[in-house]
Design a protein that fits this description.
about 450 residues, alpha+beta, Helix Hairpins, BirA Bifunctional Protein, domain 2, 2 domains, eight-stranded mixed beta sheet
Length: about 450
């Protein structure tokens, strides 16, 4: 969330940021300036009335002590109490209105984010690996998986509806192998601490990462969650939503806490299933397992000092890239444009893996620097070293390390063989019981 004082002092910049994101400043900012002025006016009048009440109270005490009549002043004090209560209510009302308005404003984009009208304006900043040349027509993963008997979308639809998958046999084991491999890589080589968080969180947690109130329709909520209350800025600590990503519970581990500077940076990795309603995805990616209501992911989350967040962003992105390189999957790094950068992010790299069966690159990880945006929403601060240093907001970062299902399908498409089998990357073979390929069982 943006700081109220920052928005007040930089309203032109905030409006430009909204236009750069292809959003409507008038719609999102509303009557910000008027509401802010009325709030400050109510607070000023309330403080003046309190000061007047206190002076009168002293005078009443002096009059009573000298035996003089204080009825007139007492009546004025009573009127001031009512006036103060009304002004306090008005100030609180304006404060709530501004808080809700601020909660709907996206983060300020970094200067290096390329201007653009859509994802077509994203900037490719790196490419790695050679695309394999096939001596046969490569197939998409849904055909490979079905032919091998390791992916069953039809029965998944019977169980749960569209956008679900059942992995069978070696397909299920490959999913498990990828999770273990990614966690081992991030903990043993990259130095992350593994976390296994809850798969359900409360509204306050989703507000902290920026998922509420804006993206309520993209979430699955339990029967005790109130989406309408969340839209009004009312966030509970005893309701439940299914997590859209491990970013939510892991980032909120330190909500309302002050960390010691010596602990930073803190790096966490977590495996979780993820649940997304995909409310805006009607008609998109209906074949295969690109866009699912439930999928598995290994997440990377960092908490850093502000001055370190750029370096840590590059490091986190590199940690995700090393998974792709170890698996021998060609990919590219893309710097997202102003129109494609997410609500909470100040700067995002997407890693896109090459899928020969579909003849295109697809996102497999988004690595974002949120600056203090999430930390301000979740009230996560650190105490800088120094005798008189005041607590400051940390910077938070996160990225997929990686989306497991998309890594699974990338292996099928990139390592498919002419006989229909799938060769396994060498680094995964110990996780697959030593086997070097997946073939159709007789």
């Amino acid at each position: 969330m943006l700081d109220l004082g920052f928005v007040r002092a930089n309203l032109g910049l905030v409006e430009k940021n909204l236009r750069d994101r292809k959003l409507n400043p008038t719609e999102l900012l509303g009557h910000f300036r008027i509401t802010d002025e009325r709030r400050r006016e109510a607070i000023t009048r309330m403080e003046n009335s309190k000061e007047r009440r206190n002076r009168l109270s002293e005078q009443v005490g002096a009059l009573k002590k000298s035996g003089e009549n204080s009825d007139a002043l007492t009546l004025e004090i009573r009127d001031l109490k009512g006036e103060i209560a009304d002004l306090e209510q008005s100030a609180n009302s304006y404060d709530n209105e501004l808080r809700l308005l601020l909660s709907r404003l996206p983060n300020i984009l970094r200067d290096e984010v390329p201007a653009g009208a859509s994802e077509a304006d994203n900037k490719v900043v790196k490419e790695w690996g050679e695309r394999r040349r096939f001596d046969f027509e490569p197939k998409p993963h849904w055909e490979i998986g079905e032919a091998l008997g390791i992916l069953d979308l039809e029965r998944a639809a019977k169980l749960s509806g569209a956008r679900f998958a059942v992995y069978m046999g070696a397909g299920a084991r490959l999913e498990r192998a990828l999770i273990s491999f990614m966690l081992d890589m991030h903990t043993h080589k990259h130095g992350y601490t593994e976390v296994l968080p809850p798969f359900m969180v409360n509204s306050k947690s989703l507000f902290g990462t920026g998922n509420l109130p804006k993206f309520a329709e993209d979430l699955f909520r339990c029967s005790d969650a109130d989406a309408e209350a969340a839209s009004r800025g009312e966030y509970k600590d005893n309701d439940h939503w299914l997590i859209p990503t491990a970013e939510v519970p892991v980032t909120n581990l330190f909500r309302d806490e002050i960390l010691e500077e010596a602990r930073l940076p803190i790096s966490f990795t977590a495996y979780t299933p993820c649940f997304r309603a995909e409310a805006g995805a009607a008609g998109k990616d209906t074949r295969g397992i690109i866009r699912q209501h439930q999928f598995q992911k290994v997440e990377l989350v960092k908490f850093t000092r502000p001055e370190d967040s750029d370096v840590q962003h590059e490091r986190l992105t590199r940690d995700a890239e090393e998974i792709l390189e170890a698996l021998g999957l060609p990919y590219r790094r893309v710097l997202l444009s102003t129109a494609d950068t997410g609500f909470s992010s100040a700067k995002t790299y997407d890693l896109e893996v090459w899928l020969p069966g579909q003849n295109l690159y697809r996102e497999i990880s988004s690595c974002s620097n949120f600056d203090a945006f999430q930390a301000r929403r979740a009230n996560i601060r650190y105490r800088p070293s120094g005798p008189k240093a005041k607590p400051e907001f940390v910077h938070t970062l996160n990225g997929s390390g990686l989306a497991v299902g998309r890594t699974w399908l990338a292996i099928l498409e990139n390592y498919q063989q002419a006989d229909g089998s799938v060769q396994l990357p060498e680094i995964l073979r110990p996780y697959m019981g030593g086997t070097d390929k997946i073939a159709r069982e007789p």
